[in-house]
Design goal:
By secondary structure, this protein is α+β, with helices and mostly antiparallel strands. It has four domains: about 40 residues, no CATH class; about 100 residues, Glutamine synthetase, N-terminal domain (Ubiquitin-like (UB roll)), CATH 3.10.20.70; about 110 residues, Creatine Kinase, Chain A, domain 2 (2-Layer Sandwich); about 190 residues, Creatine Kinase, Chain A, domain 2. Helix content is about 40%, strand content about 20%. Strands 1, 2, 3, 4, 5 and 6 form a six-stranded mixed β-sheet that branches. A hairpin with a 5-residue loop joins strand 1 and strand 2. The chain is globular and about 70 Å long. It starts with a helix and ends with a helix.
């Protein structure tokens, strides 16, 4: 059999198998996994959904897939995914006029406004879920939030990121980001009962967690989200899925999609997935390390301007200026990158999460790591403190703002720290001028509030809204009586 005939045959088998899996939602079997890798590596033409480029193409796609309902997706200030479902017959009108929503729905805990807002779908984000709901095919689109008079809503996280990307573009930079999404699987949502005791990169038998992780990746790939790698993480029952790097807006949409799909496919496996930063005291918490690079157009192609073969670690001066900006604003950024009370239970020594403000190459105790650069396109920097419960739109926005500020206002950068900062004495850290990240949410609020770049990046509305939300959370936490207090103080006091 000739090569082309073999590939055509494999494609037909793959199509039949994918349709069967979508129809009966069967458990992934060895044949399915083999076909997935054949699809990914042999044909090099994965069964991903192509995004429509026009309204006509959108309707063609809906008709082709027999879509009955569309979920219109948007996020609140805290990064919680919101949605409203509409029938297929309503979508043409919504594309023209938008869909009205209650403005308080995107304010998080702090209901600052009750005015009406309008969401308008971004047709380029149209996806079809790879399973049916009550026999109906359901699609989705991410939406931009606006006011009734047609202006962008200043509190919309997606709009905030769009503005930041437009600013970078106007200055000649093309940013790309790549997050590493870590999370836990538990028996259910009411406890932290583990489903495995595996560790980092363990190649175990195909257990429940492995099936759930691969089910999630298969669904993401079918929805057009390219996954670069997936593996077991350090903690028991802890896993990681890494989407392929992309431009910030598309990547933020993909992070929101991934979090939803990971939770949904966990339910299909009768387990629970959580992005809580630190659910188990004696295990590593879950992070969302974010890789960042900047490119420029050059002779019809993009050139990664972080790459310099003559630079230290093959990084350019601009890359080091970006590192300086991120380090300088890292304390203030924590309210965005680590926005929950629980986030600061992860940022403690001994569990591989960054605590101290430094950068290095091999040093994984540093806040910023410089990964090995294998080729010009792989030159990048890695910010290690964000966690997967963040709002990705705001995280990418403040990261980009801090990096650009480092370029605009360069300052001398201290030498990289390659020693384990966790084991250093306090005197040694002071000698090296190594500062610490905020120890709790209240400290993060104070640093965020005092940094003008945060207000400039988020805009006054979102800036005030985020502070108001986080003050409510901190006050609620301070009033709560924990199990620790009851266990340790009630018997003796």
């Amino acid at each position: 059999m000739t090569g082309p005939r073999m590939i055509r045959l494999l494609r037909n088998i793959r199509l039949h198998k994918c349709k069967k899996l979508a129809a009966d939602d069967a458990q992934l079997c060895p044949v399915s996994r083999i076909l997935f890798f054949i699809n990914k590596y042999l044909t090099n033409q994965p069964m991903r959904q192509k995004k429509p480029t026009s309204v006509d193409e959108l309707f063609e796609k809906m008709n082709e897939k027999n879509v009955a309902f569309i979920r219109l997706l948007f996020t609140d200030i805290l990064g919680m995914l919101k949605s409203i479902s509409v029938s297929r017959r309503e979508i043409e009108k919504i594309l023209t006029h938008g869909q009205a929503i209650d403005g308080s729905s995107i304010e998080g805990f702090a209901r600052i406004e009750e005015s009406d807002l309008v969401i308008k779908p971004d047709i380029h984000t149209f996806k079809v879920f790879p399973w049916q709901i009550n026999g109906d095919t359901v699609g989705s689109m991410f939406c931009d939030v606006g006011t009734p008079d047609g202006k962008p809503y200043e509190g919309d996280p997606r709009y905030i990121l769009k503005q930041m990307v437009e600013r970078a573009t106007s200055e000649g930079y093309i940013p790309k980001v790549g997050p590493e999404i870590e999370y836990f699987y538990f028996k259910d949502g009411a406890s932290t009962e583990l489903i495995d005791h595996n560790g980092y990169f363990d190649a175990s038998t195909v257990d429940q967690g492995t099936r759930a992780r691969k089910r999630a990746v298969t669904a993401l790939e079918q929805m057009g989200v390219k996954v670069e790698s997936l593996h077991h993480e350090v903690g028991h029952s802890q896993h990681e899925i890494d989407p392929h790097y992309h431009r910030p807006i598309k990547m933020a949409d993909q992070v929101m999609t991934a979090r939803f799909i990971i939770k949904e496919t966990a339910i299909q496996e009768q387990i629970y997935a959580t992005f809580m930063p630190k659910p188990i005291p004696d295990q590593n918490g879950s992070g969302m390390h974010v890789h960042l690079s900047l490119s420029q157009e050059a002779h019809g192609s993009q050139r990664n301007i972080f790459y310099d073969p003559k630079g230290a670690c093959s990084l350019s001066p601009i890359a080091y200026q970006c590192i300086g900006g991120l380090l300088r604003h890292s304390k203030a950024m924590c309210l965005v990158t680590n926005q929950w009370v629980n986030s600061y239970k992860r940022i403690i020594p001994g569990f591989e999460a960054p605590v101290y403000i430094s950068y290095g190459t091999w040093n994984r105790s540093s806040l910023i790591r410089i990964p090995i650069c294998k080729n010009p396109q792989s030159a990048r920097i890695e910010l290690r403190n964000p966690d997967p419960a963040c709002n990705p739109y705001l995280v990418f926005a403040v990261m980009l703002a801090a990096a650009l500020d480092g370029i605009k206002n360069p300052q001398p950068l201290p030498p990289p720290v390659e020693d384990d900062v966790y084991t250093m004495t306090e005197a040694r850290r002071e000698e090296l001028n190594i500062d610490s990240l905020p120890a709790n949410l209240n400290e993060a609020i104070e640093h965020f509030q005092s940094d003008p770049l945060m207000k400039q990046t988020l805009g006054e509305h979102a800036f005030k809204s985020l502070i108001a939300n986080k003050r409510i959370e901190w006050d609620n936490f301070r009033r709560a009586i924990t199990d620790y207090e009851l266990k340790n103080y009630l018997p003796i006091l």
